[in-house]
Amino acid sequence: MHKQRKTQMKNEILNDKGYVLEIDIGTHTCPDAVMTINKGDYRKIRKQYKGRIHAEVRDKRMYARINIGSDCILVHKLIHPDWTNIDHRDGDGLNNRRSNLRKATDSQNLSNRTRINKNNTSGCTGVIPTRNGRWKAVLHCRRKNVYLGTYSDKADAVLARLKGEAKYYKSFMPKKNRKLLAQII
Predict the structure, then answer these.
(1) What is the CATH superfamily name and number for domain 117-184?
(2) 64-68, long-range: CB within 8 Å, 24+ apart, which pairs?
(3) Tens digits of residue pLDDT in 21-48
(4) Domain with CATH 3.30.730.10 in the chain
């Protein structure tokens, strides 16, 4: 028997938590995608646009999008159309609750990323092995590279990087790194 493809499904409300909804926006490429959104924002979007909201992977992150004519628009841009850059506090592109969205600069938005480059050999962003077997800690903030020191122990370089993120990125420090730093200290 041939299964019905996920892309043909409507945006089914999976959970109604009062003022927040969890909605199935899965597709055949992202079958388990669930968007979280304030009920009022969902009603407003549904009133204006009839397209299906769907999940899409962009820069290795999943976001909620809606087709409007020939355009495909990010749902968080419909919630805050006057904001140029929008950051998801928790790093989850499917969490479109107003409390999770904040106005950001390009630099702030980039600082809240946790993805490690494929050519990274240390396993930690901004921790780089040197030729003499030591570890260098760096970060990028406000279009400048910030040197955080060179350490003989990789764990010390990772700690310096986490402390640097707390100092320079402040509230835009990635949530998982903030938790990791709290466990270490």
Answers:
(1) AP2/ERF domain (3.30.730.10)
(2) 64/25, 64/33, 64/35, 64/37, 64/93, 64/94, 64/96
(3) 999 999 888 899 999 999 999 999 999 9
(4) 117-184
